[in-house]
Amino acid sequence: MRLFQYERAATPEAAVADCLAEDARFIAGGTNLLDLMKLQIETPAKLVDISRLDLGAIEEAEDGGLLIGALVPNSDLAADPRIVARYEVLARALLAGASGQLRNKATTGGNLLQRTRCYYFYDRHTPCNKREPGSGCSAIGGENRILAVLGTSEHCIATHPSDMAVAMRALDATVVTLKRDGDRRRIPLGDFYRLPGDTPQIETVLEPGELITHVALPPAVDGARHVYRKVRDRASYAFALVSVAGVVRMDQGRIAAAQLAFGGLAPMPWRNAEVEAALVGQEPSPALFERAADILLADARGQGSNDFKIPLARRTLAATLRELTEAR
Amino acid sequence: MQFTVNGQRREVDVDIRTSLLDLLREHLALTGSKKGCDHGQCGACTVLVNGRRINSCLSLAVMHQDDEIVTVEGLGDPERLHPMQAAFVAHDGYQCGYCTPGQICSAVGMLGEVAAGWGSHVSPDLAAPELSTEEIAERMSGNVCRCAAYPNIRAAIAEVAEDGGLEAAPEPRRQEALA
Ligand SMILES: Cc1cc2nc3c(=O)[nH]c(=O)nc-3n(C[C@H](O)[C@H](O)[C@H](O)COP(=O)(O)OP(=O)(O)OC[C@H]3O[C@@H](n4cnc5c(N)ncnc54)[C@H](O)[C@@H]3O)c2cc1C
Ligand code: SF4
Ligand code: FES
Ligand code: FES
For residue B167, what pLDDT band results from cuts at 50, 70 and 90? Predict the structure, then answer.
């Protein structure tokens, strides 16, 4: 690990003031950043410890939603009775991720910003445009079983590994930030991540030194059913190959509202409004679910060892929709 | 830097890069906690910080100067075993023993989480979880055992849970305490 300067911030304002240099980084739970620092994939010259900031609460928002502090541990978020009762898909996604120990440390803000698990990103001896811009992408034509089939570019086919972010995307969450100049921004999660294009090293719209202070959830959809279905290589403690977060409300045997987001398929939690539009107003049926999958996967492109994700996504979507719509 | 480990205040001079695991093993001679992977993947380094189980390998020591750190050595000693330690002995919850300190700390933390009403990935009802064999396996999946002593590990944990060994487990840190 490279040597770094360490500072513990007392307030969010002090944290952004401390994090001025290009090679300074915030550290929250540290479960992703330290992992990458040990391998010298991240080599910050300065760490600004934000773990003691007063951003550890979950509060009722004025609009009837919830305001989640950036430092709320993943465990606490999953166990919060309001999350369990009103946003079960989020609790389920969190509990499907990592391990009990890791969830105790991992934070809401850090989880959103965790980096890809692409094997080559982790291997400093191979070319990787995300780790070393311009060096090439070893995954294209290489080992890409866990990588993306949607939203990729010729420069990078990495997936975003978070489960939590997929549920938040389905729930229309908004990221609240504090910038260096003191400005606050509210960034819908749908605008937060960037596709790789020819700059895969830039993953979000955050400016350098911009601090996530909260994630806001809009009011919950009344009477909706929530499902998070994660397909992975082991039954527990493994990243998603494919996952679907779904929130669906039924009315008299028809789908009245549908919010669906997908993990493991793309460089960001993936959502496609056309998929949802095709479902709303319809009676659930295997043919309808196939049509939704056709729309979702119209532009999907495998790279060899990840080809299987396309039929897997199709079946996972159908299974999730069945669970969301079947009479109980 | 100053730390509170197993109820004792300790002062040491360490490099800023030192992980909590290396602090315990290399600087405080607490070699119960083990290094399996050093990357959060095996759970051998699990300790309790403010009553919560965490991976000490993915923690910077400097970030835990104000915390209560408990290692397997702090849970009990050969003369006065913690109920979880005694149950692991009674059920042969290990073969080589390398993962055992992490398993024991993790199990103690886990029972605290169950007592606090936390659900898991396999709980049908997240609001009212009940501890079953399947629940123990899921909740302990962050602790890998190379010897696959899993059936006996689960049996040991189940016995402590049934015996109401929960009281012995420290309370997980509540959210308010975070601020
Ligand atoms: C073995 C293992 C298995 C895992 N399995 C899963 C899994 O199945 N599913 C899953 O979703 N995740 C999984 N994870 C990843 C885990 O969820 C993340 O490591 C964790 O959520 C990161 O949170 P953190 O607080 O520790 O972030 P840190 O490591 O502290 O930070 C991560 C990044 O975010 C930045 N950052 C942190 N907080 C803020 C903030 N408030 N504002 C601005 N920037 C910030 C940091 O500068 C850093 O760049 C796994 C991790 C490991 C090690
Ligand atoms: S897919 Fe992206 S992260 Fe993986 S090697 Fe290619 S550029 Fe790097
Ligand atoms: S040594 Fe910490 S998880 Fe393996
Ligand atoms: S007893 Fe040998 S690794 Fe678990």
Answer: low
